[in-house]
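Entry type: protein chain
Record version: 2
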Amino acid sequence: MSTPAAPEASEASDPDGLLAEQLLRLARRLHRFHKLYLEPAGITPAQFRLLRTVARSPEPPRMADLAARLEVVPRAVTSLVDALEAAGRVRRVPDAHSRRVVRVELTDTGRDTLRELRSARRTAAEDILAPLTVEQREVLGGLLSALVGPGPERAC
């Protein structure tokens, strides 16, 4: 791994900008790690997010609900569900109250895949967080919760 370059003078005078850049670099690194660990299962990070979202729902969610929860356009959810359905990990089911509504539920294969992927995700997290002590991890967790926790969405 390469050593990060020293901050330029302009970056040093813009600590928030530097912090934002570091967060973006970390996000890209997390995405690469997750992709690396998820690839052997034949699943993308976006598909994993969709599986987790379906699993956490008290009832099979509607496609529109998935799009909202994942913060993507409905067409993206359709593509993800198509791929997961083709792999036997989810299935579309009709809504009990409206024939026009389609819901998505996990299959047994989907539940097995989630169990497998949760282990891979933990391994990826351990690799990324290895340089931090337990105390540092707790502080980081608290800080991240403050940034991404519930509350009104801030404009980008």
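Comment: The first strand starts at residue 90 and ends at 94.
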